[in-house]
Structures are given as C-alpha cells and as structure tokens.
Amino acid sequence: MSEPTGLRARKKERTRDAIGDAAVSLFLERGFDQVSVNDIAAAAEVSKPTLFRYFPTKEDLVLYRFADHQGEAARVVRDRGPGIEPVTALHRHFRAGLDRWDPVTGLSDHPEVVAFHRLVFTTPSLAGRLTRYQLEDEEALADALGEGIRARLLAAQILAVQRVLARTNWQKIADGRTALDVHPEAVADADQAFRQLQ
Asked: In what helix (H) or strand (E) does residue 41 lie, and over which residues does it extend?
C-alpha cells in the first residue's frame, strides 16, 4: 500500500518540478509579464487546470523556489542548542549560508541565480508576493522567540537585517563581482549587523 502512495507522491513532485522549471525558464527568457499561463502549460506539457492544481497563481510559479526556506528562521531558533541565544543561532546559520554560497544569502554568482533574483526584485507582483512570504516568516519567527511586542520587534529586525544583507550581496554580484570576491565583505557585514542586533 505504501509503494503506490510513494510512487504517486514522486510523480506529483516530478510534475510540479517540470511545471516550475518550464515557467522559470520562460520567465528568464522573456520576462514575467510577457509569459502567459497558457505558454507555461504548453511548455510543461500539462493542461491549464493541472498547472493551477500545483500553482494557484502565476507568482507561485516563481516563488515556490523559496518554499524550502519558508519558516527557516523560526526552525533555527526552535532547534538551537541549549544555552545558545536566538540571535547567535541565526547569525551562525546565516554565516554558514554564506560559506555554502547559498542563494538565499544573495552570495551566489551562478548566472541563473543572479537572473532569478533580478526577475523577483524587478517584477512588482513578485516583489509584492515575496513581501507576503516575508511577513509570514516574521510571524513564525516571533512565535518561536516568545510572546509580546519584544518578540515581534526582534523578529522584524532580524528578518530585515537578513533581507538587507542578502540584497546587498546580490547587488554587488549583479554589478559584476564574483561571489568569491564579495565573500569577505559579506561575512564582515553579517558580523556587524548581527552584533548590532545583540
């Protein structure tokens, strides 16, 4: 009984990935507003209703790639070791992301990653949807930090710092620098920013 369920889940995941990959390829090639949902369905070889079962909106076709990071800050706080302050755990996590060239830190010079971020940052509807995701992350982080205004303010500050750091790193790379070249500055900026949060 579990094998058919596993096969079904893997097939759904493959279909979702194929639709998402086709959409992002078209968006990067032509621009978000120049690609229709019909174009994407045709490229992915699925029907429009099938596409909408996996992605309720056109924006979701792009931003699903952020799904792995949804609620990440809250998870880092909840999973931190005993005696480690939340800001320290988040600082270490961000620094580790820089060392891995994690695209979410903005420190990736892979051409597709740079183009993907440009697409998100310069398309108003995508930037707006990304803000909604960030507000959901802020709420989850505030819940992980505790109760009351102090937790909400700290969550907002932490996520604002991470957003500014990532955007700064991405901009330097988008301006033509390599991730290797930007890395020391990114580490220094992260250290300074998280020190200010302490």
From this structure: helix 37-44
One-letter identity of residue 101: W
Which pTM was predicted?
A: 0.82
How far is C-alpha 198 from the chain's CA centre?
Answer: 24
**Cα separation of 92 and 100, whole Å?**
12
SS (H, E, C) 112-161: HHHHHHHHHHHCHHHHHHHHHHHHHHHHHHHHHHCCHHHHHHHHHHHHHH
Return d(Cα 162, Cα 105) in angstroms, integer.
Answer: 8
Q: Residue 83 region, left (φ>0) first, then alpha (ψ -120 to 50), else beta?
A: left
Distance between CA atoms of 83 and 90, rounded to whole angstroms?
14
DSSP state of 9: H
CB 23 within 8 A of CB 40: yes
Q: What is the pLDDT of residues 89-107, one digit of tens each?
A: 999 999 999 999 999 999 9
pLDDT at 174 > cutoff 90: yes
3-state SS class at 22: helix
What CA–CA distance (Å, rounded) separates 63 from 154? 25
Backbone dihedral angles phi then psi of residue 160, each to the nearest 5 degrees: -65, -40
d(C-alpha 71, C-alpha 141), whole Å = 7
Of how many residues is the chain composed? 198
